[in-house]
Design brief:
6-stranded mixed sheet; 377 residues; 7-stranded mixed sheet; globular; 13 helices; alpha/beta; 19 strands; single chain
Length: 377
């Protein structure tokens, strides 16, 4: 059986690994000249880490487990504490953070080199599994469309489906070297700033705030002036060319199916979500392992139906929860509502905070068939 994966990001490579594990031949078509990810860092929650364990992807050298941190206001006053030890006892895995380039490299290394094609822009995808791209044409038993939030494959298969919508927020992101920085999230009116330590003394930071789409971005250093340490210092330590800025969009109208013929949509192509729960990449990895699991048990049409039945309700619920979380965090601007939120968080014991979102982060992947070891003479 042969699968073509359109897109070499987190979800596409995860799907390629899973399909290879169950014995399929896989071709990954990536339009960029090389595999990589324009981005800064990414948080990996236990649901994603368990999937990566099942896929056999070892992130140990690059994954940074997040230790005790918490929530603060603009002035640095603690609002709530994150109990990392209690979180890890609950889930069996920590909250992790990693540079996106390291995650992509680990995923790419788990796919046979002959399966990877770069500079291959897909121009046509048909329901029967036929794929045209710059450089040739393939007939596949399955096509996995993992081509992102503005997925051309989704537009071709579901031409009447509404385009992604603006979340209400824009975001700056960056990575800089700043040894000693600690995990933390800080809030002010309509603004959220996060800090996640990476390996080697690097730190991933983001600044998200509510504004109109397409607004002229402000001077970031001026915007964070007056925030508690080390936020201004982190921004100052980041070279301007290393700072990314994007308006945040998501798929506001849920798809009625993630499947069309022999084509399965996966990751942002199926359920792009705002980043307020840190679950975008995690849900794509979940998609990948469920798809591989179902294809290991039954024929393609039945497996794709089972994939859609499982993944659509869960991932679309996570989209809704992500939107809701944004309204309660980085987009909350009403002073009275902010005071109520602060009071509620302060009233929570540190150990209670680790149960927030447990239904999402506690998800466990299906088991994939174990690879058969080669026979010795």
């Amino acid at each position: 059986m042969h699968a073509v994966v359109v897109g070499g990001g987190i979800g596409g490579l995860g799907a390629a690994i899973g399909l290879h594990r169950i014995g399929w031949t896989v071709t990954v078509l990536e339009q960029a000249p090389e595999f990589g990810d324009v981005g800064a860092g990414i948080s990996l929650w236990p649901n994603a880490l368990r999937c990566l364990d099942e896929l056999g992807v070892d992130l140990t050298p690059h994954l940074s487990p997040q230790r005790d941190g918490g929530f603060r206001d603009k002035r640095g006053r603690r609002v709530a504490r994150f109990d990392a030890a209690a979180f890890e006892r609950l889930h069996g895995r920590p909250l992790g953070a990693i540079h996106r380039k390291d995650l992509i490299a680990a995923l790419t290394n788990a796919v046979p080199a002959e399966s990877l094609k770069t500079g291959a822009e897909v121009t046509e995808v048909h329901e029967d599994g036929r794929v045209r791209f710059t450089g040739g044409e393939l007939q596949a038993d399955l096509v996995v469309a993992a081509d992102g939030i503005h997925s051309p494959v989704r537009r071709a298969l579901f031409p009447d489906h509404p385009a992604p919508v603006y979340s209400g927020s824009t975001a700056f992101r960056g990575i800089t070297r700043f040894p000693g920085a600690k995990l933390g999230t800080s809030f002010d009116r309509g603004t959220e700033i996060g800090v996640l330590p990476l390996t080697g003394g690097d730190v991933y930071w983001f600044v998200s705030y509510a504004t109109q789409p397409g607004s002229q971005p402000p001077d970031l250093r001026r915007k964070v002036a007056g925030w508690h340490d080390p936020i201004p210092a982190l921004i100052d330590a980041t070279t301007p060319e290393a700072v990314l800025h994007h308006d945040l969009y998501y798929l506001g109208t849920p798809l009625k199916s993630y499947v069309k013929g022999r084509v399965a949509l996966l990751g942002d192509a199926a359920h792009a979500m705002p980043p307020f729960l840190g679950q975008g990449g995690c849900q794509a990895i979940e998609d990948a392992i469920v798809l591989a699991s179902e294809l290991s048990k039954q024929d393609v049409p039945q497996a794709l139906k089972a994939y859609d039945d499982q993944r659509r309700p869960r991932s679309q619920k996570v989209v809704r929860e992500s939107v809701r979380m944004g309204k309660l965090t980085s987009q909350l601007a009403n002073p009275v509502a902010i005071k109520i939120r602060t009071a509620l968080l302060k009233a929570l014991p540190a150990k209670a905070t680790v149960y927030i979102g447990r239904e999402i982060t506690g998800w466990r992947p299906p088991r994939l068939p174990r690879p058969v070891p080669p026979r010795t003479p």
